[in-house]
Amino acid sequence: ARQHYDNLSNILSSFNISVTLLTGSLKKRDKDQALESIKSGASGLIVGTHAIFYESTEFKRLAYVIIDEQHKFGVIQREELKNKGEGVDMLLMSATPIPRSFALTLFGDLEVSLIKTLPKGRIPVTTYLAKHGNEDKVYEFLRKELLKGHQVYFVYPLISSSEKFELKDVNNMCLKLKEVFSEYVVEMLHSKLPSDLKEEIMKNFYSKKVDILVATS
């Protein structure tokens, strides 16, 4: 949401359109200010997370709703949001062909639009497969990328070690990676961290204050 907010604010800055960010992690004063701006109609465009669905979020005249990653939101949630206005048009977006999303495109009486091209300037993705035991080669490759000023993130399936699964976890791997890349800033991110801390870490990674992010999915 923060990334969309920043991008849209830059794009619409010369059109005198006020853009408001609404997330659950906002401080109370900022959240109250955002809610008042939305209710009064001072905000022409609102970018947010699940906080937009809350009963306390009132719109002066909601006309158009865009839901990205629509499969992550419930049917009732989407309907309640639509009911916050009259004659609201809705655009559902998803790149994940889960059964329900696929069924909606076939039988849901929806007009379907397909985006078949990559965004302008998108760099092609190259995927490499490394075997266990070749970690040093992977680290060497990543170090070259870091020297170019690029960033790195690692994704692991577990937050902490488990006796049930022989899988690597974020807590232990973050400690290891801090040793391997001691000259770089390494941070850890997972769902059990406080919301404000997660927000801060993401901001720091986005602003390149963090070189390496170790996270769960």
Automatic annotation (TrEMBL):
GO molecular function: ATP binding; DNA binding; DNA helicase activity; hydrolase activity
PROSITE patterns with a match to the protein in the record: HELICASE_ATP_BIND_1
Swiss-Prot/TrEMBL keywords: ATP-binding, DNA damage, DNA repair, DNA-binding, Helicase, Hydrolase, Nucleotide-binding
GO biological-process terms attached to the record: DNA repair
Keyword ATP-binding appears in the UniProt entry: yes
Domain Helicase ATP-binding: 1-115
UniProt cross-references to Gene3D superfamilies, sorted A to Z: P-loop containing nucleotide triphosphate hydrolases
Record-linked PANTHER family: ATP-DEPENDENT DNA HELICASE HOMOLOG RECG, CHLOROPLASTIC
Protein name: DNA recombinase
Highest classification ranks of the organism: Bacteria, Pseudomonadati, Spirochaetota, Spirochaetia, Spirochaetales
Gene behind this protein: recG
